[in-house]
Amino acid sequence: MRDIALGTSVSEVAAACGAHAVVNVTVPAAHHPVNVEAMFAGLPVLCEKPVAPTVAEGLSLAAAAEVSGQLLMISQSRRYFQGLTQLKALTAELGDIGVVTTEFFKAPHFGGFREEMAHVLLVDMAIHQFDAVRFLLDQDPVSVYCEEFNPSWSWYDGAAAATAVFQMSGGTRYVYTGSWCADGLETSWNGSWRVNGAGGTAAWDGAGSPVAELMSGAGLVPDASHEEEIAGALAEFVSALRSGEVPSGEVHSNVLSLVMVEAAVQSASTGQRVLIDDAMDGAYRVAVASERRPDMRAALEGRGSARVRLGNRAFS
């Protein structure tokens, strides 16, 4: 233990050990202050998902990355399964994509704070699948209608089951349905996926390799060899630092995965379809009003909108 640097702040510890980057695995509520301190200390950050508890804080962190000039990448570890990479390649062979579905059914007894959360499935888990569909399609969300409920046998205080229908920017509909109190015939932690397009269908059980049936015959599953889960996120982070290329989990893009969660919760709470731009604009107003650093507030105000366009950045 004598060789381990200890301190009460990330900049203090980083200075003591000569750090070149920060891996932020604090609880979500601490993501914003730790990330801001690290970036303004001149350190790029790989942060565990979610980028922040709210989209407003996520937009603030995007502004911090711009002002500081440092990379902030979010570790969406489930993007890095080889099976998902293979499914993405097969999806590209299907032509126009009409529908993507994910079924997620697990029955974990976590105990503690998760069993007390108000929107436990949507807030704590669904971001993995919501982020994965953005990766799979190279499309971003336009709107969502969501219903959530708590089955009578649930051991959760809040809603442990939900169905959400997203319209994506390419016109595809993404349907997510799941439950965290679903004993028996459980899916993998990645869920069970089906992609239907003009040229056929591909499916993935979330664990092995996907399969596909094309109008022209059986689809050939491509090879995929890369690090998976957290190791995959770390590899992309290091590669981005060395090459200067923007990684897939860069904060501006990742905010669009978080807003899928926040908009789904809004829809479930109001019973109304929610436009993603409306959810983003509401979060943007909160971010501007709450920002205490003049330089970050100026960066936010200079954009004029939370999202000027759908694409790789939440605002640009």
TrEMBL record:
Top-level taxon of the source organism: Bacteria
Statement: the UniProt record of this protein carries the keyword NAD: yes
Alphabetic keyword roster: NAD, Oxidoreductase
SUPFAM superfamilies from the UniProt entry: Glyceraldehyde-3-phosphate dehydrogenase-like, C-terminal domain, NAD(P)-binding Rossmann-fold domains
Record-linked Pfam families: GFO_IDH_MocA, GFO_IDH_MocA_C3
Domain GFO/IDH/MocA-like oxidoreductase: 93-202
Presence of keyword Nucleotide-binding: no
InterPro entries: Gfo/Idh/MocA-like_OxRdtase_N, Gfo/Idh/MocA_oxidoreduct, GFO_IDH_MocA-like_dom, NAD(P)-bd_dom_sf
PANTHER family linked: CONSERVED EXPRESSED OXIDOREDUCTASE (EUROFUNG), CONSERVED EXPRESSED OXIDOREDUCTASE (EUROFUNG)-RELATED
Protein name: Gfo/Idh/MocA family oxidoreductase
Source organism (scientific name): Arthrobacter vasquezii
The organism's taxonomic lineage, starting at the top: Bacteria, Bacillati, Actinomycetota, Actinomycetes, Micrococcales
